[in-house]
Each structure stands twice: as C-alpha cells, then as structure tokens.
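Let us practice reading a record.
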Amino acid sequence: MKRFFLIIAFVALAAFTLGSNCGVRPQPAPVPPKDTADCPAACEKLRALGCPEGDPLEDGTTCEEFCKNTQDKGHALRPSCVKDITKCSQVDECSKGNREIFE
C-alpha cells in the first residue's frame, strides 16, 4: 500500500511539473518600425507647427528621444508620416496609419 501511494505521488508530481509550462509561450521580441530615422524630421516639423507633441516631456525627454525609444520598443509612431503633416490635427491620423490626409 505504501508503494502505491509513492507511485501516485510520483505521477502527480511529474504531471504537475511537466504541465506547469503548458500553453505558456514567451513574448516575441519587439520589432522596431523601419522609419525611426525620421524621428528628428518629425519632431522638427511638430515644433515648427507649434504642436505640443514636439515639446520635451516633463522629465526632460526630448521629442527625438521619446520617438526613438518608443519605436525601439516596437510601438509605431509613424514619424515618416508625421514629418509630412501640415497641421497638428493630422498627428492622430498618422498614428492610425491614414496617409490619405495629404492627398
């Protein structure tokens, strides 16, 4: 009888150990967008138009730093679109991927 309980305990422990990672997949590495090089031009355009998005953050982070860091984490700010805007209200359209605003 003691042997039976040892076998049951072993099987339960093995099932728990083997099944503990079941279905858990590591998060994929972020893929930075390809237009990060356009961050300086986008920030310059934002400042030229007087858009608040071109201003430094409260902690002193510049627009260029924020753009690069955000892009490097895989979050597309679409600076290639922002550098071509003609008014501040178009920033939101760029973030949605709408380039038709210039056509």
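A brief commentary: The first helix runs from residue 2 to 19.
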